[in-house]
Amino acid sequence: MGRRTDGLRLWHYPDWRDGLTDALRLSAAMTSKFAVAGLPSGGGKAVVALPEGRELDTDRRRDVLRDVADVIASLSGAYATGPDVGTSPADMAVIGKTTPHVFCKPADLGGSGDSSPHTAQGALAALRAVSRRLCGTSSLGGRSFAVIGLGRVGAGLARLLAAEGAILTVTDIDPDKQKISDELGAVWRSPDETLAADVDIVVPAALGSMLTSRTAADLRCRAVVGPANNQLATPDVADLLHQRDIIWVPDYVASAGGVINAISTELHRVSADEARARVRAIEDTVDDLLDTAQRCGQTPAQAASELARRRLNGTSGPTGTNHGAVAVPGSVAR
Ligand SMILES: NC(=O)c1ccc[n+]([C@@H]2O[C@H](COP(=O)([O-])OP(=O)(O)OC[C@H]3O[C@@H](n4cnc5c(N)ncnc54)[C@H](O)[C@@H]3O)[C@@H](O)[C@H]2O)c1
Ligand SMILES: CC(C)[C@H](N)C(=O)O
Questions:
Q1: Staple 86 to which of 4, 10, 325, 332, CB 3.0 to 4.6 Å?
Q2: C-alpha dihedral (264, 289, 239, 44), degrees to nearest 10
Q3: 4-35+42-114+312-333 fold
């Protein structure tokens, strides 16, 4: 069995089976993410499905993480985890006490630390490629962006965009995040208004399935490019966006900066500079994909999926079409 890698999501779901569905969709996307990034791993995802409204106190959270660590340890290296929505390097440190199969522990414990700044840099690189396509320059100053989700990745990316002189509309379901909006001089709107904002590029940086046939019809932007995993509710939304002349860069391409940095530094042992260069190369990957799509009369989604398929078929060993999901039902957290 090939090795599968990727993050641990700790989030609320109406039913633990919704968490399982999320884990399966995310793990499939991770397989494509690793393939397009040229990384030698299958995709995986672990989800802790918390019942709606249930918050974990410190002790309960540690117990849940230990349960997750036991499951990962039982897989004997077939799956390694890292952070995702709802988890952090500190959580990886807890898991790391039970199993070595964990990425992104804090640097003082030998890990590569928080993946989110690298994910944000990777998404910025993807945005540069799309800006060049739309405006003839990779410079982001003066361009308008609508950032949805001001969590670890979204807030970091919004700060990078603000530093380049971009014009920002932002949102989050957490009203406390309006502080970040104020700090950046951004316009704060509701999530629905932000998705339909009249901007150059919408940047999904929250949870998945935001792009449905209905929301795609309401978009007023020229492109959708962001770090959120699984942005499309259903694959056909990519065609709807293409028909509307809206460029959509597949999430598994734009969001690869975090895993590229973690694998490059923790497994390939390259320098921080080399890892940064690999993350920045997402700009070239997106350039190539958009060129291929245009040349072959495809959507960027089709071009990316063909590239992933070619890489998966042409590679033996640890990379394969297999992906795996570990769902830890909410019962552990009840
Ligand atoms: N952390 C990483 O390195 C990394 C890497 C690749 C992809 N991603 C993806 O990027 C996205 C964000 O990850 P993160 O690590 O920043 O998570 P996070 O938990 O730190 O942030 C998510 C943010 O989205 C907000 N949010 C949730 N639902 C929303 C909605 N409907 N509308 C607006 N805001 C909403 C939350 O309140 C939170 O502030 C996720 O899809 C994740 O899978 C993260
Ligand atoms: C960094 C990685 C572990 C991240 N959760 C991703 O989805 O790519």
A1: 10
A2: -20
A3: Rossmann fold (3.40.50)
The architecture (CATH level 2) of 116-255+284-303 comes to 3-Layer(aba) Sandwich (3.40)
Is the ipTM reported for this complex over the cut 0.90? yes
Question: What distance in angstroms lies between residue 297's CA and the mean position of ligand 2's atoms?
Answer: 31
Q: Do domains 4-35+42-114+312-333 and 116-255+284-303 have the same CATH topology?
A: yes
- d(CA 31, CA 45) in angstroms, rounded, equals 10
Ligand nearest to the CA of 104: 2
Residue matched to tokens 């709107």: 189
**Ordered per-residue pLDDT tens for the chain, 334 residues:** 356 767 899 999 999 999 999 999 999 999 999 999 998 778 889 999 999 999 999 999 999 999 999 999 999 999 999 999 999 999 999 999 999 999 999 999 999 999 999 999 999 999 999 999 999 999 999 999 999 999 999 999 999 999 999 999 999 999 999 999 999 999 999 999 999 999 999 999 999 899 999 999 999 999 999 999 999 999 999 999 999 999 999 999 999 999 999 999 998 899 999 999 999 999 999 999 999 999 999 999 999 999 999 999 884 333 333 444 444 433 333 3
Domain ranges for the chain: 4-35+42-114+312-333, 116-255+284-303
Ligand 2 centre distance from Cα of residue 73 (Å): 20
Residues with active-site annotation: 45
- 26, 6 in Cβ contact below 8 A? yes
**Looking at ligand 1, which atom is closest to the CA of residue 83?**
1
Cβ < 6 Å from ligand 1: which residues?
83-86, 115-116, 119, 148-154, 171-174, 177, 191, 205-207, 227-229, 255, 258
Ligand 2 centroid – CA 257 distance (Å): 8
Dig out the tokens for 320 from the structure: 């394969």
Ligand 2 atom nearest to 33, measured from its CA: 8
CA 7 / ligand 2 centre spacing (Å)? 5
What is the phi/psi pair of residue 303, to 5°?
Answer: -65, -40
The residues near 271 (Cβ < 8 Å, ≥ 6 apart) are none
What pTM was estimated for this model as a whole?
Answer: 0.93
